[in-house]
């Protein structure tokens, strides 16, 4: 049996990817097996039965290692993490995310203002990594026919509760982003606000799958952590301004329990990596949006803060099209 990695003390990159699985959401004809989402019993605004311990405590997170993680392992770990973290996550961030608002990033950029997806009235839309699906709710309320997809049943339970609260019923599918369970050319628009892309080992496969299910001329817009933030500690204060991690080190960030079993995984890609992934999928990159920190915006979220936001970007939003 291979030796388990020895957990190290939790380093400054803990909480690296927590700023959003919201965005951290009428299915097209399925082409592979999916898991339907069963109902929950919501008792608060986002469907949690009650606040629970943080996912680190639930999963027994004990330390951090750097090592490769297979696609299957990464998917399984991500599902476990977000199932465990769903209630605590929404207790902490639910007010900011809203129930039917489309917020692209912790900088507070909203689709209502940015219009990165264009006019969505009558469009068939897919949200990849929808979490509790506030973005899907917003799209549906603005005239789109939307499907929300997420790997985590815990997050989708919150999406169901939100739909019950708003009366806008968005179809939800539990599945991974590397094999989308939809027929070719099913959607006019696909989007992801901090969902799925940073948590899969093969993000090139995600790009190819999105390209496959998009119709010619369709848009794919996704927001992720800006790659430059990988080099800094996850600290919103002065300690988060000193580079400690090589930008070109793509070894996954892995939190583990006491036996070395992964409890959380996040994958880093450089800007160049993302551009090549997009091109390899046959998509065209039309814009790269790096939201600036708005004047007067004082909310900190993980390492996102006014201090850091004044110096370098925290979010990258890739705007792509499938050629006609």
Describe what this molecule looks like in 3D:
Strands 1-5-4-3-6-7-11-10 form an eight-stranded mixed sheet, with helices on both faces. Strands 2-8-9 form a three-stranded antiparallel sheet. With 324 residues, the chain is an alpha/beta fold. Helix 2 (71-97) packs parallel to helix 5 and helix 6 (203-213) runs parallel beside helix 7. It is built from eight helices and eleven strands. Helix content is 26%, strand content 20%.
Topology of this protein?
Layout: E1 35-36, H1 55-59, E2 61-66, H2 71-97, H3 111-114, E3 124-128, H4 134-141, E4 145-150, H5 153-166, E5 172-174, E6 187-193, H6 203-213, E7 214-225, E8 253-257, E9 262-266, H7 271-280, E10 284-289, H8 306-309, E11 315-321
Parallel strand pairs: 3-4, 3-6, 4-5, 6-7
Antiparallel strand pairs: 1-5, 2-8, 7-11, 8-9, 10-11
Helix pairs in contact: 2-5, 6-7
Structure characteristics:
Rossmann fold; alpha/beta; 324 residues; 11 strands; eight-stranded mixed sheet; globular; 26% helix; 8 helices
Name the CATH architecture.
3-Layer(aba) Sandwich
Number of helices: 8
Helix/strand/pairing category:
alpha/beta
Strand line-up across the major sheet: 1-5-4-3-6-7-11-10
E-strand count: 11
The CATH superfamily label reads Vaccinia Virus protein VP39
In short:
By secondary structure, the protein is an alpha/beta fold.
């Amino acid at each position: 049996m291979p030796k388990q990695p020895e957990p190290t003390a939790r380093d400054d990159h803990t909480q690296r990817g927590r700023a959003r699985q919201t965005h951290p959401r009428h299915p097209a004809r399925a082409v592979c097996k999916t898991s339907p989402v069963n109902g929950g019993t919501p008792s608060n605004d986002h469907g949690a039965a009650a606040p629970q311990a943080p996912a680190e405590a639930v999963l027994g997170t004990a330390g951090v290692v750097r090592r490769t993680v297979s696609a299957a392992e990464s998917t399984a770990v991500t599902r476990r993490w977000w199932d465990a973290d769903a209630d605590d996550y929404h207790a902490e961030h639910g007010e900011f995310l809203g129930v039917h608002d489309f917020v692209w990033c912790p900088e507070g950029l909203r689709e209502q203002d940015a219009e990165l997806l264009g006019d969505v009235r009558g469009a068939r839309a897919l949200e990849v990594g929808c979490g509790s699906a506030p973005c899907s709710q917003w799209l549906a309320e603005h005239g789109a026919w939307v499907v929300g997809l997420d790997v985590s049943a815990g997050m989708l339970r919150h999406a169901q509760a939100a739909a019950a609260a708003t009366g806008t019923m968005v179809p939800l599918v539990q599945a991974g982003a590397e094999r989308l369970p939809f027929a070719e050319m099913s959607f006019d628009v696909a989007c992801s606000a901090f969902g799925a892309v940073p948590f899969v080992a093969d993000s090139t496969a995600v790009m190819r799958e999105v390209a496959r299910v998009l119709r010619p001329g369709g848009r794919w817009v996704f927001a992720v952590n800006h790659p430059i933030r990988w080099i800094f500690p996850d600290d919103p204060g002065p300690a988060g301004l000193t580079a400690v991690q090589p930008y070109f080190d793509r070894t996954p960030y892995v939190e583990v329990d006491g036996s070395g079993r992964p409890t959380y995984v996040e994958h880093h890609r450089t800007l160049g990596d993302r551009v090549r992934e997009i091109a390899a999928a046959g998509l065209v990159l039309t814009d790269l949006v790096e939201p600036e920190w708005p004047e007067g915006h004082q909310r900190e979220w993980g390492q996102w803060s006014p201090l850091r936001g004044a110096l370098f970007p925290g979010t990258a939003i890739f705007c792509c099209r499938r050629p006609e």
